[in-house]
Design brief:
Blueprint (H helix, E strand, L loop, with lengths): L2 E2 L8 E2 L2 E2 L1 H5 L1 H11 L6 H8 L2 H4 L2 H21 L9 H15 L7 H10 L15 H4 L5 H14 L4 H22 L9 H9 L1 H19 L4 H31 L7 E2 L14 H4 L1 E2 L3 H11 L1
Helix pairs in contact: 3-10, 3-13, 5-7, 5-9, 5-13, 6-12, 9-13, 10-12, 10-13
Length: 302
């Protein structure tokens, strides 16, 4: 009987079917992939934390960050409704709890609404209203580069296997803490907004990660032929997610470049928004930084 050696878990497969040990080792094998794509290792979070306060507090910059981050999160929240292989009643119940944790919070609240309130609490000039985050193809008109790619890819991968779901749930606690830490340097209350504090206190993302892995193993024990595509899609979404952080890093680097020699900051709308509203006086103006802040900026540039 031929033995295939290229199984992504490192376990041997006979006649194309993974061994039971390969399925049982799924969490460890995926952890190796996820460590290579750990969000907090990306320069975006460090660069955001190290921005001069006057730059980091720019409402236009915060609005751009909100748009990109919320769009990526919206894509996964919408795509999770189309997860395959979970049709049995017991599995539907477990999937429902994930939905409730995201979209069924007390008093009609959702993680989407909580995130927007968190950004508005720090003065973000949000570029889209909450209900404008709708159909993903339409949303891509407001996005650029890797973020649009991620938003297009998420529903495809989520509906094809459970791999992308495992990846996103396993990586989400890391990126949420990294974002909360970075913006809390400039806005100390930010990490205490419900979007972050409730998830951290209740370990929501960690529970979701464990549940995704356990449910996926249950499915694979019944259908081991799905293992390869599970790994393929987990890796694909993790790579696409790296692109979202890279795009955000370019936005932050662009904000750094708006510091002009006299220490002031030029504010402009992001060109990625389709049919933007007419420029306001704030958009056209130069926002003057206090002398002490300007001195810090000049020193950092030298």
């Amino acid at each position: 009987m031929a033995v295939r050696e290229d199984n992504p878990t490192g376990g041997k497969c006979r006649q194309g079917v993974p061994t039971l040990s390969a399925i049982e080792d799924l969490p460890n094998a995926l952890a190796v992939i996820f460590e290579k794509h750990r969000p907090s290792r990306m320069p975006f979070f460090r660069r955001l934390a190290e921005l001069p306060h006057a730059v980091a507090r720019n409402p236009a910059l915060l609005g751009q960050i909100h748009l990109v981050y919320q769009a990526a999160m919206h894509a996964t929240r919408a795509a999770v409704y189309y997860l395959p292989h979970l049709d049995r009643p017991a599995l539907r119940k477990r999937k429902l709890q994930i939905f409730i944790d995201d979209d069924g919070l007390a008093c009609g609240d959702t993680h989407h609404y909580q995130l927007t309130r968190a950004f508005r609490s720090i003065g973000a000039e949000c570029l889209l209203d909450d209900e404008e985050f709708g159909e993903l193809g339409e949303l891509c008109h407001y996005l650029e580069a890797e973020t649009a790619d991620f938003v297009r890819l998420a529903p495809k991968l989520y509906s094809r296997s459970l791999g992308a779901w495992c990846a996103v749930e396993s990586l989400s606690a890391d990126w949420m803490r990294a974002l909360a830490d970075a913006l809390s340097v400039h806005f100390p209350h930010f990490r205490h907004e419900p979007y972050f504090e409730e998830c951290f206190a209740q370990k929501v993302e960690e529970r979701h990660a464990a549940e995704a892995l356990e449910v996926t193993q249950t499915v694979l024990r019944a259908r081991p032929e799905l293992l390869d595509e599970t790994f393929r899609d987990a890796r694909a979404i993790a790579e696409a997610l790296d692109g979202v952080w890279a795009h955000l890093d370019r936005i932050v680097r662009g904000a750094e470049a708006t510091i002009v020699p006299d220490g002031s900051i030029r504010v402009s709308r992001w060109r990625g928004i389709r049919n933007p509203a007419p420029a306001t006086a704030q958009d056209a103006a130069l926002v003057q930084v206090e002398a002490t802040q300007a001195a810090k900026v000049s020193a950092a540039e030298n």
